Amino acid sequence: MLLSELDERARRFKIALRAGIPVLLLTFLVFYALFVQSEEFNLTLTNTFLILAIVFVTIYFNYFLLTLSIKEMAIDTVTHSFNETSFMRKLRAFKPKTLVLLSIKNLSDLNEYYPYTKVDLLLYTIIQELNHYLDQHGLHNQLIGRRYGAEFYIALHADPNNVHTLFDTFTTQYASILDIDLDYSYTAISYSVDDDNEKIFQQLRDLKLSKKKEAYNPTPIQSSKELHHLENEVKYALEKRKFQLTFRPLADTKENKIKIYEIITNLGARNNSEILARNFLPIINRLSLGVEYDLALVAYIIKLLTKVDSSLSFAFNLSPYSLRDKNFQKKFFLLLSQNNIDNSRLIIKLYERKTHHDLSAYLKILNTYREKGIRICIDNFGSSSSSSILYMKEFTFDMLQLDKEYTAKIDDHNYATILQSLLAMAKDLQIESIAKWVDTQEQKEKLTSFGVDYLQGFGIAKPISYETLLKQDHIKKD
C-alpha cells in the first residue's frame, strides 16, 4: 500500500473519532435524562430547546468535519499518491536524499486514443507498480506525489548515485502497462533539508527541459547548491556578455566555397568553462531573460560581421517570443541602422514545433524582418515534430535547413524520394536548401546531385572557434 494511502486512512480515522465525540455526548445526555436522573423527565419548552440545540450542534459539527475532510484530502483521487500540496508539506520531515521528477511523455496521445477511465486506471497502475518496484529494492514507504497530468515527484531515501540505474530499469521493465506502451522521462537531483523547496523544484523542472531528446547518457546527479551556482554563472555570463561561439561552415555546392557559418551559442563561466545551451536556456527562460539574451547575441553577431569579409553570412537561432516582442524589434532594427553591414548577411533560424495560435499576425511580424533584408530560414524542415510544412504554405522563407534524417537515411529509397520532392518544391518557391550532418563523400555527392544548395558537416569542414574565424584568410582587411 502506498504511504499516501496509509496516511489518508489514518487521517480519516482521526476525523471519525472527532466526529463521534458530539454523537457520544448527545447519546449520554439523552440516556442520563431518561434513565439516570431521579426526577421524572418532562418535555418542557426549555428541555425541548436544549435537545434541539444539541442535535443541531452535533449535525453541524459533523457536517463541518466532513467538509473540512474533503478540502484537506491529502491524496490525488486518481493515482492515490499524495497531491502536490501534501507532498510539499511532508517533504522536509521526510528528509530524502534524492528527488526525482518522473514524466509520461506520451500522455496527450493516450488521452486521444483511450477513454479517460482507461487513462486514469493506467496512471493509478503506474504508481502502484512504481511503489511495488521500489519496495522490492528495499525502498519502503517512499514519498510519491502527483504534480499534475502525468508528472510525479518521488522522494527517496536512496543514494543519488544509484538512482539512474533504479529508474532506467523501471522505465525499461514497465515500458508497457495494461497493454499500453509508455514513453517515460525522468530527472533527479540530490536533496538537503537546508535547501529551499521552491527553488529546488524549479531546478528539477529546469533539468527536465534541458534533457536531450537523443539517446540518454546518465550524468552524476547534481545538488541544489550546484544548480544554484549554475544559475548564478548564467546570470553573470549574460551580464558580462561572455558568449562562447562555435562556427559550423556551410559550403556552397556550386562553388564549393564556405559562404555561411551556422553559429552554435554557449556561455562562458567565470573559469572560462562552457555552459551548454541545453543547460542555460531553461534558466534564461525561467528568469524571463530571453529577450535580453537574444538582443545581446544579435549585437555580438552584428559586431562580428563588421570584422570579417563581407562575403560571409551568419545563421543563428532566435526565440519566436523575442521576435514578437516590440521592444526587441525596435532595438534590433536600431542596431542595424548603427552598423554599416548588408542585412542579408544575417540569417535567423526558426524551429517551430507547433503552429502559433495567431499564425497570420506572427507571419506579418516575420515579414518585417525580411523587409529589412534579413533572411529567414526554417530549421529541421520535413521533421515529423515540426510544423514547417504548414508555415511554408503561408510564408515565403529564404532558406530551409533539412532535418538530419534525410542525410542519415539518404540511401533509403523512401527518404531519398521524399527529399527530392522537397527540394523540387523549394526550387519552385525559390528557396535555398541546406543539408546538415554530411559526414561522408557519398552523402556529399548524392546531396549535390539532388540539387541541395549548401552542405554542412564533418565531411565538408569541421566547426571552428571564434579565434580561428578571425585568423582565417577571409578576415576583413582594414
UniProtKB/TrEMBL annotation:
Segment forming the signal sequence: none
SUPFAM superfamilies: EAL domain-like, Nucleotide cyclase
Annotated GGDEF domain residues: 95-224
Molecular function via GO: cyclic-guanylate-specific phosphodiesterase activity
Pfam families associated with the record: EAL (PF00563)
Residues of the EAL domain: 227-477
Transmembrane segments: 15-35, 47-66
Keyword Ubl conjugation belongs to the record: no
Domain of life of the native organism: Bacteria
Record InterPro entries: Cyclic-di-GMP_PDE-like, EAL_dom, EAL_sf, GGDEF_dom, Nucleotide_cyclase, Rev_trsase/Diguanyl_cyclase
Keywords associated with the record: Membrane, Transmembrane, Transmembrane helix
Name of the protein in question: Diguanylate cyclase/phosphodiesterase (GGDEF & EAL domains) with PAS/PAC sensor(S)
